[in-house]
Design brief:
The protein has 180 residues and is an alpha+beta fold. Helices cover 27% and strands 26% of the residues. It is built from four helices and seven strands, in the order αββαββαβββα. It has a five-stranded antiparallel sheet, with helices on both faces. α2 packs antiparallel against α4. The radius of gyration is 18 Å and the shape is elongated.
């Protein structure tokens, strides 16, 4: 563990405040669920909880099936990290932090299709100039965005209506799986 030098007292209700600097660095927002772990030395570890993370193996199989069907790179992410990627460019995305632009697209709660110069970086530090078309289908659970299915086209390929419907259906299916 890394010491921060910050000390907080527990209040009468058993609460502690996570400092703003740490929340900002770890991208913890108000209302985000946190898992609580204990270690052998008596320490407490807080970790952001990702409902989609529990289905990581399923998400990878799902991304591979969608990618092979569409013939395009497919990404499945939670609100922070790319959990699964399949297709020609999967190595550029897998297990990388999502960009703030992708996070904003998820928060819009609507399917977003971008072509040409309008494409956005999907992961932090990505150069999206090679991307010719992308489709972002948010995954929602109980009306709240918890991730996204993203289809990426390069080399002049364009995402059409069939690919859009497939991504929308996949996002709706993943959302329903999370609600069960």
């Amino acid at each position: 563990m890394k010491a921060t030098g910050i000390v907080r007292r527990i209040d009468e209700l058993g609460r502690i405040v996570i400092p703003k600097e740490i929340r900002r660095t770890l991208r913890i927002r108000e209302g985000d669920p946190l898992e609580i772990y204990t270690d052998r030395e008596g320490g407490i570890i807080l970790k952001k909880y990702s409902p989609i993370g529990e289905l990581a193996a399923f998400a990878l199989d799902f991304a591979e099936a969608l990618s092979s069907t569409l013939g395009l790179t497919t990404i499945i992410s939670d609100r922070d990290t790319v959990l699964a990627a399949s297709g020609e460019y999967k190595r550029e995305y897998f297990e990388r932090a999502v960009s703030s632009a992708l996070e904003d697209s998820m928060n819009a709660r609507t399917v977003i299709k971008k072509d040409g110069a309008n494409t956005i970086p999907l992961v932090s530090g990505e150069d999206s100039s090679q991307t010719t078309s992308q489709l972002i289908a948010p995954i929602s659970m109980d009306g709240q965005p918890i991730g996204a299915i993203v289809v990426v086209a390069r080399g002049g390929a364009i995402i059409g209506d069939a690919e859009q419907k497939a991504a929308e259906a996949a996002a709706a299916f993943m959302g329903k799986q999370m609600e069960q």
